[in-house]
Amino acid sequence: MITVENISKYYQRQTILHDVSFSLNEGEILGLLGPNGAGKTTLMRIINQIVVADKGHITFEGNLMQEKHLLEIGYLPEERGLYQSMSVEHQISYIGRLRGMSKTDTKSQLNYWLEKFGIQAWRKLRIEELSKGMAQKVQFICAVLHEPKVLILDEPFSGFDPINIELIRQELLEFKKKGHAIIISTHNMNSVEEICDRAILINEGHKLLEGNVHEIRENHKEGIYKISFTGNMIAFANALWAGYEIIDKEIHGDDDFSVYLKMRQGNEINDLLNAVINEVKITGVETVMPSMEKVFVKTINAEKEIPHE
């Protein structure tokens, strides 16, 4: 759907983006991750032709990105751009017309989204009368009103409580089912794990990591297992040998435990189970997958030790 090829951007000898490339596919949600100042927002602005790249180019459905393609993109910027004196319906209608929608289609979509979000009572309120979360819903509607092929969302969950985060999450999954392509820049790592198909990690303008979210987590496993059992904790610990390190434990009851173990010296899970099976009753075994937040922190910290040219 969108291909970003070798994009670079510099401001007064400072590297904002350096040779960043990736693709966004139809029916895919791509997570764009990175610390503050990594270059994520600049990259989104370049895709939306708000900022001009110093090097590289972007294509939309195989064609060099042009202004006409922006009508197929819905953009939710991090800095919210609503007109404070406008009413909710006036603001949404205004954006619809800017996106090339007819008056009839704009009105139909306006009514659809106000009803879908249960906010019909807001339509006459001025933007300045809305709370941050309320205004965020209006901004989201403005981004999706014209049913764009591509959604580019900068911190879409900011300002929302857990209930509304789930509401927006479900809407994004619906867009995905319909074949829309979505880029999300977010600090909400749980959302990345739950809805993103792929993730890209950018730091100091450089792309450090890209791949399927599950595969990224799989590749960063540290050989940690969670063993749940009933029985005696001391007997369990005594049955282990130097090949295992107890990292943490959870006590669920007098004889009900979960222990987090790290493998050492090439031992396998079967070796562990054979060592303890006669001492306690095993009720569960699972591989501990690192969260995207842990992968994020580990990768950024490792990158700090590598000088760039």
Automatic annotation (TrEMBL):
Keyword annotations from UniProtKB, A to Z: ATP-binding, Nodulation, Nucleotide-binding, Transport
Keyword Transport: yes
UniProt xrefs under InterPro entries: AAA+_ATPase, ABC_transporter-like_ATP-bd, ABC_transporter-like_CS, ABC_transporter_ATP-binding, DrrA1/2-like_C, P-loop_NTPase
Residues covered by the ABC transporter domain: 2-229
Pfam families to which the protein is assigned, alphabetical: ABC_tran, DrrA1-3_C
Gene Ontology molecular-function annotations: ATP binding; ATP hydrolysis activity
Signal peptide: none
Protein family (similarity comment): Belongs to the ABC transporter superfamily.
Name of protein: ABC transporter ATP-binding protein
Organism expressing this protein natively: Brumimicrobium salinarum
